[in-house]
Automatic annotation (TrEMBL):
InterPro entries: Glutaredoxin-like, Thioredoxin-like_sf. SUPFAM superfamilies: Thioredoxin-like. It comes from the Bacteria. This is Glutaredoxin family protein.
Length: 75
Protein backbone atom coordinates (compact mmCIF):
# COMPACT_ATOMS: atom_id res chain seq x y z
CA UNK A 1 0.00 0.00 0.00
CA UNK A 2 1.39 3.45 -0.87
CA UNK A 3 2.10 5.79 1.99
CA UNK A 4 0.69 8.83 0.14
CA UNK A 5 -2.07 9.26 -2.42
CA UNK A 6 -2.65 12.41 -4.44
CA UNK A 7 -6.23 12.79 -5.64
CA UNK A 8 -6.27 14.84 -8.80
CA UNK A 9 -7.92 15.53 -12.15
CA UNK A 10 -6.67 15.22 -15.70
CA UNK A 11 -5.15 18.44 -17.08
CA UNK A 12 -5.12 20.09 -13.67
CA UNK A 13 -2.50 22.84 -13.36
CA UNK A 14 -3.00 22.99 -9.59
CA UNK A 15 -2.25 19.28 -9.42
CA UNK A 16 0.99 19.91 -11.32
CA UNK A 17 1.87 22.61 -8.78
CA UNK A 18 1.12 20.23 -5.90
CA UNK A 19 3.39 17.58 -7.43
CA UNK A 20 6.15 20.17 -7.67
CA UNK A 21 5.79 21.02 -3.97
CA UNK A 22 5.90 17.32 -3.08
CA UNK A 23 9.03 16.83 -5.17
CA UNK A 24 10.67 19.88 -3.58
CA UNK A 25 9.86 18.42 -0.15
CA UNK A 26 11.39 15.11 -1.28
CA UNK A 27 8.25 13.32 -0.21
CA UNK A 28 8.04 9.73 -1.46
CA UNK A 29 6.23 9.76 -4.79
CA UNK A 30 2.50 9.50 -4.10
CA UNK A 31 0.16 7.20 -5.93
CA UNK A 32 -1.86 9.35 -8.32
CA UNK A 33 -5.60 8.74 -8.26
CA UNK A 34 -7.56 10.57 -10.93
CA UNK A 35 -11.10 11.28 -9.81
CA UNK A 36 -12.51 12.00 -13.26
CA UNK A 37 -15.34 9.63 -14.10
CA UNK A 38 -15.63 8.16 -10.60
CA UNK A 39 -18.86 9.49 -9.12
CA UNK A 40 -17.93 8.72 -5.51
CA UNK A 41 -14.48 10.33 -5.76
CA UNK A 42 -15.86 13.33 -7.65
CA UNK A 43 -18.48 13.85 -4.95
CA UNK A 44 -15.82 13.68 -2.22
CA UNK A 45 -12.93 15.55 -3.86
CA UNK A 46 -14.41 17.43 -6.82
CA UNK A 47 -13.91 20.99 -5.59
CA UNK A 48 -10.96 20.16 -3.32
CA UNK A 49 -8.37 18.68 -5.70
CA UNK A 50 -5.54 18.29 -5.43
CA UNK A 51 -5.77 16.50 -2.08
CA UNK A 52 -2.86 14.67 -0.50
CA UNK A 53 -3.78 11.73 1.70
CA UNK A 54 -1.49 10.06 4.23
CA UNK A 55 -2.78 6.50 4.27
CA UNK A 56 -0.99 5.56 7.51
CA UNK A 57 -2.47 8.45 9.48
CA UNK A 58 -5.78 8.64 7.61
CA UNK A 59 -5.17 12.37 7.20
CA UNK A 60 -5.78 14.67 4.23
CA UNK A 61 -4.22 17.95 3.17
CA UNK A 62 -6.22 20.12 0.77
CA UNK A 63 -4.69 22.47 -1.76
CA UNK A 64 -3.29 25.07 -1.52
CA UNK A 65 -0.24 23.97 0.44
CA UNK A 66 3.40 24.93 0.40
CA UNK A 67 6.51 23.42 1.99
CA UNK A 68 5.76 24.92 5.40
CA UNK A 69 2.16 23.72 5.44
CA UNK A 70 3.28 20.28 4.29
CA UNK A 71 5.89 20.09 7.07
CA UNK A 72 3.31 21.09 9.71
CA UNK A 73 0.83 18.53 8.38
CA UNK A 74 3.44 15.75 8.41
CA UNK A 75 4.59 16.51 11.99
Amino acid sequence: MPHYVLYQRDDCHLCDQALAVLAEARLPEPESVFIDGDAALEARYGVRVPVLRDMARDAELDWPFDLQALDRWRA
